[in-house]
Specification:
It contains 9 helices and 12 strands. With about 230 residues, the chain is α/β, with parallel strands linked by helices.
Length: about 230
């Protein structure tokens, strides 16, 4: 797909995590140059909710990394998404924390005060990661293509945009391609601890099936759902 890195970042969803009273006057103006919209969060718990409930492409974190909570937060993110670019901006210069962060495949570890050039370089690297991971257009089969940025499905000659829940469900299924995902695992991923009726879940699958092709999603009755290669 012919898409510039600038256009890619403009269309991406960035989550900026920082205590509300410590929002960086250097970082935010730079981010506003690259992204049309910045999603803000001031706590780790709130950030996790946003990542679970929405689709975040890049994470910039300015939380303190002076205890295990910061590293554990990144570990939790990696369980959800192993590819999302993560940029850490911190005062912590301790080598052991840096090594732990590197093991978690972060994009950049920036020591404050924030160097604008390093941040811009990290954002550029983030766009390359999105492109190199194939996170733009995914060929599901010969008749079906999915655009991660636009959340659109091209099935044969038709093209449809997925709703937030449809996109979240579809991305879960293709992340576990050639496997059946248990119904209880799907519910937990989609709705966390919220109660959901069987009819509501079937309605969501039916809506999605109409857009991606009824033969695309396999239903193992009473067990779960999956997408298999041709």
């Amino acid at each position: 797909m012919n898409i510039s890195r600038k256009n890619l970042l403009e269309k991406s969803n960035i989550l900026y995590l920082s205590p509300s009273d410590k929002i960086c006057k250097t970082s935010v103006p730079i981010l506003k140059l690259f992204f049309n919209k910045i999603i803000y969060s001031d706590t780790i718990d709130n950030a996790l909710k946003k990542i679970n409930n929405g689709i975040i492409d890049i994470l910039v974190s300015e939380i303190d990394f002076y205890n295990s909570s910061g590293i554990n937060f990144i570990k939790t993110i990696r369980k959800i998404n192993n590819n999302i670019p993560i940029i850490i901006i911190t005062n912590n210069k301790k080598t052991n924390i840096l090594i732990e962060a590197i093991k978690l495949n972060i994009t950049e570890y920036i020591i404050k005060p924030t160097d604008v050039n390093i941040l811009i370089k990290a954002l550029n690297e983030s766009s390359k990661i999105l492109l190199n991971n194939g996170d733009i257009i995914n060929k599901i089969n010969n008749n079906l293509y999915y655009n991660y940025l636009d959340k659109t499905i091209k099935y044969k000659e038709s093209e449809n945009k997925l709703t937030k829940n449809e996109a979240k469900l579809f991305e879960l299924l293709i992340s576990k391609k050639d496997k059946i995902i248990k119904i209880e695992d799907i519910k937990k991923y989609m709705w966390a601890n919220k109660e959901l009726s069987e009819s509501a879940m079937k309605t969501l699958f039916n809506r999605l099936s109409k857009k991606v092709g009824k033969e695309t999603i396999t239903n193992s009755f009473g067990v779960g759902y999956g997408i298999y290669s041709e």
